[in-house]
Amino acid sequence: MATTKLWKVENRLDNVVNYASDKSKTENKNYQKKNINSIFELLDYTTNPDKTEKQFFITGINCELDTAVKQMAQTKKKFNKDKYSKNNKIVAFHGYQSFAEGEVTPETAHEIGVKLAEEMWGDRFEVVVSTHLNTNHIHNYFVLNSVSFKDGKKYYSNFANTALLRKTSDDICDEYGLKVLEEKTCKSGINFENFYKNGLSNSDYYKFAKEDIDYAINHSWTYKEFLKKLKDIGYEMFFRTEKISIRRYPHKRNIRIERAFGEQYSIDNIKNKICSSYPNREEVIKPKTYTGRLYLKGSLKKLSKPKGFKALYLYYCYLLKVYPKKKIEYKLTPAMRVEVRKMDEYSNEIRLLNKYNITNSDELNSCKTNLNGQLNDLIRQRNNLYYKRQNMAENENKDEINKEIEMVSKDIIKIRNEIKLCNKIKVRVPEIKEQIKYFNKKENDEKQKEIQKKKQRKWER
To answer: Which residue has better confidence, 130 or 253?
Structure first.
C-alpha cells in the first residue's frame, strides 16, 4: 500500500530538485561499484533497456536531469511567470509516494512512481521522479514545475486533484498486486473519495466521454470499428497494461475508462458487449416533424421573418432541438451538448428579444440602458416607501404601504433579471455564431465525404 502527499514550494527551485536527486538517498547499496564520476554520467547506462539493475533511481519527465532546473526556469520565463508576485509565489510542488516496509523492490517502486507522474502530469508539466532508499520505507519523490510547458497555465493543487492523485496511485498499485488503503474520513472531516466521485459526476468532460463510449459500443460490429468510431468523434487513444485511456482536445488529462466508469468498460467486457448485441442503426439526423394538421390564424403574408439576434437564437435552438435530450448524438459538438441543458435560459432570452424587438448590439445596449434607468427609479421609489413607513406612527396601519413595497420589490427583481439576460445575450451571441459556424462546417465536411464515396464507387464500377 502506498500513501501520497503534495505540497507547494515557494523558495528556490534548485534546492528541492537537488534534495530529490540526492545521490546518497537514491543509491542502491547492493549494486556493483563502477567508475562513474557523477549521476548524470550514469543516465545512459541506467536507461539501457538491456540492463535490469540500476544504481540510481531518478527519471526526468519532459526534462533532462542535468538541466531540469534550467528547463523549468525557461518554461516560467517563456510565459512571463518567472518573476515573484502576489499571484506567482509558488515555484514548484514537492510530493512523495511512500510504500510499506518490505512491500516493493526499488525497481518496482520507481516504475510505479514514473507511471504515476506520467499519468498525472506527463502531458503538461516537467517532473523529476526519484526513489529514495535511505529509510526502511522506500518512497518516491516528485518535483513538479508549477507552470505547464504546453500552455503556461499553473498547476492547481486542490482537494479534487489531491483525490485524483490518491486514486491514481491506488489503481496503479493495484495493477502491481499491492495492497490499497481503504479511503476514510480524515481528522479534518475531509473524505477524498467523495471529492473524486463529485469531480467525475460534475465534469462535462467525463459525462460526454461516457456518452460517446456508449454510442460507439452500441453502433459497432467489431472492436476495431469501436476504436475507429471513437477516433472519428475526436478522441485520442492510449493503451497500457491492456487498458484503454482516451483524451479529447482541448482537455489535457487522459481518462482511463475502466477506472473512471467501472469494470464493465474493460477491453474484454467491451468486446463481449459488442459481440453479444446487434448494433443499432445510425440514426438519421432530421428535425422533429408533426403528423397532425397545423392551422394558422391570419395570413402568412403578414408574418415578418425574424432578423438579427432573434433569427440567430431561433436557428441555434432549432439545431439543439434536433437531438432528443436522452439520446444526444455524437455529431453534436461537446459545447453544443452543454447548451442543450440550458434550454430554459434560451427561452427566456428569446422572450426578451421579442419583448423589446432587439435585433442587434446597439438595440441591446439601448435596452439595457433603459432597464437600468427603470431600475434606479424603482429603487428610489422603494427607498421613499421605506422612509415613509419608518416615519409612520406605531398605531397606524402599515399593511397598505407594505403591499406597495412588495409590489415594487417584485418589479425590481424582474428588471434585474432582464438586465442579467441582456448581459448573457451580449456574451452568448459570439459563442452561438462560432458554434453554428463549426456545426455547419462539420455537416459540410460529412456531405463532401459522402460525395467522394459515391464518386469512388462509380470509379470502381
So the answer is: 130
